[in-house]
Structures are given as structure tokens and as C-alpha cells.
Amino acid sequence: MGYANTSQVGTGLRQRLYSRAFIVGSPSSPSDRFVYMVLDTQSGDTAIRNGILEGLKGLGSAYSMYSQKNVAVTGTHSHSGPGAWLNYLLPQITSLGFDKQSYQAIVDGAVLSIKRAHETLALGTVSAGSGKVNNANINRSLYAYLANPAEERARYPDNVDKTMTMLKFTRASDGKSIGMLNWFATHGTSLLGNQTVVAADNKGVAAYLFEQDVAASGNAAPGFVAGFSQANVGDTTPNVLGAWCEDGSNQECKLEDSTCGGKSQDCHGRGPFFGLNDGGVKSCYEIGKRQFEGAKAIYNSNGFTPITGSIRSFHTFVDFSNFSFQLPNGTTVSTCPAAMGNSFAAGTSDGPGAFDFVQNDPGAPSNPFWNVVGSLIAVPSAKQIKCHQPKPILLNVGEAKVPYDWSPNIVDIQALRVGQFIIIVSPGEATTMSGRRWREAVYNKAVSSKLVSSATPPIVVLGGPANTYSHYITTEEEYGVQRYEGASTLHGIHTLNAYINSTLTYLPYLADSATNASPPGPTPPDNRNNSISLITGVVYDGAGIGRKFGQATTDVSATYTRGSLVRAVFVGANPRNNLRLEGTFAAIEKQNNDASWTQVRNDKDWELVYEWKRVNGVTGTSDVTISWDTSITSPAAGLYRIQYYGDSKAVGGKITSFTGTSGVFKLT
Ligand SMILES: [Zn+2]
Question: How far is the CA of 77 from the centre of ligand 1 (A)?
Fold first, then answer.
């Protein structure tokens, strides 16, 4: 999912997206196990989670221990992936509905990653470490953060969490590491809303660099997996140079409302390489690299704490449309049916103007989806308006049920535990201070209820957005300010406390003595089979008169010096004919001494970019451009060629694979 902008339509692939699965289990009790998934997606979601759980069931009885209770589906919060796979209508609107192909690719990859983790489970140890990662996040909603009590803010050195917390998994048989999973909060918005080539944003880069580095060192087990999980991401941004007015004034945006001359459109966050006009590509790589380097420093340190004890998990659904509970001070309060406030439409300095809403625009929205459903938005009742105060309701999504639910009212409450390490699995994007309060509440309860041994104090992390996408979670004070994050806090001013209350209610299910499963709670709607889809399929591809699919129309030069950009254009076909899962659309091959060829780069590599462009809709012709930036890593000198793997669709519907090969070029 991109920036909720209909004009942002995918045109290629910079870095293939992955699912990374971590299974932690007890050797003596196979049912004591959990799966923590890190998907290169905007979030976890009800649709894909249901698909994953069904997929696991389909794998047979050997997988029967994986269930609703112990599978956590989190997303890295990349804003540069394909959309149209979410369960509820609101995030479907700008991607023109729900697309089975997009959905199925995510589910299939996720299930395969669990299968691989399951098949390679090995006896070993888990240990935890942490350290600071500098210059990879700042607060994009400082004015709201400053509304939190001064005494509370004074307890923390920064206005975002700079700490990365890490689990290391070490195999007993040979002492080699088989994986690493960390939590660190920074938005997946380094790549900007004006770029349309798929990538996993900065966390995709970080995971890629870590896995490459570990593979090169030879110290870890083959197949080592590095998970860079998102944390309390809500008010963080990777655009660390701050938000500036791009209206020629060269002023910082107004602190209170991130405007320039009264408008949000000109206010943009700047990444470390702002000014290159590259859609944020270089900044994205840099923010990924900073997380990779931070993770590597922790990974190589001696400060790891052994994690020992039971493995437990719980999951339940709670209906937040009217959830009554007691605040710590004894007052009884309630949540409200979901609603979005006015500032939701303004977007953020990472991506102004969400969902085709432009402030003060007298024209009708141009998105055809609004024509289908635009008139069906529910009018909020007086009770609903009061419940959400001080949020002015823009979209009464929680009471909009036609043609199906617009936003989740029923949310996932889940936590996982291995020994003294507790993972809160958050459906929403908790802000910095929300995450701190939530973690602290769990920490305190874990201590006071003796959930973990007093000899090993709890280590609590928060991962998300996960399981269902419930937008944002702010503190009450931040909610009072009603910036984007507060306006997108779905269930009213008590949303955060409702999450904390629910987590604490079910926390006893993480105790050593807990044997029962947590109650399932109400079942959320499953919209996979009744969602609108306005996305049309591939009609047909044509090569064009006198041309063949895969033919190079602009070939490579004979020689390139290292550091230059190598590029070839081929007669292409629509990549949606075959997503080439587990395969590649593009490759660089290097010639060996015996004249044979070896693939040295493919479409998982950041430096190799695949772009597709429909040239003529009537003839069905298209161009595929494959470019290799040799300035990022330093590839060896030698003879190389580009391979393009495509699939064309004939008028009758038959899909045929083909390969295109560039001329040979010398890299000097
Ligand atoms: Zn976000």
C-alpha cells in the first residue's frame, strides 16, 4: 500500500518484498510456541491474517499448533508496496478495492515463510540486547507530543524512542546464529509519494543489508533471517532533516499544524539526501543503512541477556465500538465506533493530503470509487459526535456499514512471551508516548503479578501495525491536539487506555501456570469475498510488428566503468501475468572463465531496478527497462549481461513465458 493516492500506480520493482517468520517454541511442549511475522507491507491485516491461518490449516496436522492465539502478523509499514489487500473499505478506496492477486501473493509468501521456519526449527537459545540507533528517526508531530505532561516527558532523553531492542537466535548444535529480530520505530516513508517503483522502504533495506553482511561473514548459519520489525511508529518519521516549506520561503513548517502559509500541501519532511529529486531513493537507502549499522553494533556486542522461561501467548478480539472500562483512577469510560477527524484529510509532512481529500477543494473527488460509495457514508449521531470530542468527525467510518464495514470496530488484542521477554502486538500505529505508557503498564503488571521471575526483570517491546489495521493510537493529551495522528485515532480519546486495559486483562494468560486459551471474543467481519474490485485484469500483450517479446530495443553499451548506470530496454509484457514469486523479473549475470554464466544480482537487490511501461493500450505493447546502478556496491570487473524474465498474455488469455538477454558488456 502506498500513500493512499489513486494516482500512485505501480510501475516496477526496486526490491522484491519478503515475509520473514520467526517461530519460538518449547522443545518439551510443542504446543507452547508462537510465530512472529515481519511482512514488507504497510501493516498486518484481518484479510491476510485469515488467509495465513487458513493456509496453515491446509498444511495439515503437523501445523495444528499454529492458530489465532499464537500467530502475530506485523507489517514494516512500508508505503511503497502494492495495495488492494486490506479487509476494510476505507484503505481500499484509493487502490480501487480489493485485488485477489495482490492479497494471495502476500498470503502465499507469508505461509511459505512459516513453513520454512517450521521445517528448520532447531534446538537453541534466545538472548536479548539493545542499543541506540542515531539519526534514523525524529518526531513529525512534536506539537502533539509536547501536550504530554512535562514530568512524563522529562523521564525520556528524546521525543522519539532511539533504542533498538533485539532478540538473537542461536543454534545449539554448532553455536551459529540462525536469526535476529529487532524492534525500532521509524516510518516507512523514506520513499516519497511521487515514486511508483515497489520497494520495502528503509526497513527492507536494513534487513537486506544485514542478511547480505551475515552471509558474507560466514559466521552465521545459512539461511539466516534478519527481521527489522516496526515499533511505536505513530509520530516518528525517517525524514530526519525536519519538515520544510517547499514554497520558496525556505522556512520550517509551522509547529502547530505543519502548514506553510496556511496550507499543508507545501510542507514536506526532508530525508538525509533531500534535494536529489530521486523520490527519496538515496535517503531511503541511508535510513536503512543506519538501522542496519545500529543493529550490527548491537548484534556484535557482548551485552546480551539470556532469555529463559516459558513460552506463552494470547489473542482475543475486543469490540471497541462501545467498550466500557475503568481508568486507573477509577473513572468508568467508553470507546466509540470508529471515526476519522478532519486532520486525517490533511495528511502529514511525510505525505500530505490522504484519500483524495484536499482541504477547501470545491470540486468533487475524481476517484471513481467515491462515485460508487461516496454517498453511503453514515451521518454521525449526536452521541457519536460527543463521544469523539474534541475530534471533529470527517468520516464516520465505524457506523458506515454499506456496502460493508469501512474500518475495524473489533480489534485484535495479543501478546507473546518467551521467558522474561514480552511482545505487545499492536493493531494500530502507537505514538512514541503511547508505546511507552503501554509497555510500562505491561512491565509493571508483569512484575506485580510475578508473571516473570524477579531474578530476570521483564523486557517489553511493542510491535505493529499488526493483525488488523486500526490506524493510529495517541495519548489523550495528543488526541486533544488533533493533528493527523489524533484525528486517525479511531475509537475516541480513550483508545490507548482501552488497548492497555484489554492487554492487562488478558496478561494472566501469559503466566507459567496458564493452561487455558484466552476467550476468542467477537468475530470481526471478513470482507475478502464481498469486497468491491474496480481493478481490471491484463487484457493482452502485443510485441508490435516485426518485434519479439524480450528483444532488446535499446541495448547496453560495450563498456562501462564501475560506478556508472547500466541500462537496457526490452520488448516487454505486463508483469501481472506472473508475479514470479520465488523468482525474479530481472537478473545480472557474470561470465565465468569457462564462458558459462552465473546470476550475481536479481530483483531482491536494491541496485537493480525493473520498470514496466505500457506504450500502447490498443496494440498492447510495452517497454521494460532494467537498470543496474554499479555505484552502490563495488561489483568485480568482468563481462556481464542483463536477463529479463517476462510472461505475455495472448488475446485468448494464454500466458507464455519468455526471456530477454542483453548484449554482453564489460565492466572496468
Ligand atoms: Zn503510518
Answer: 7
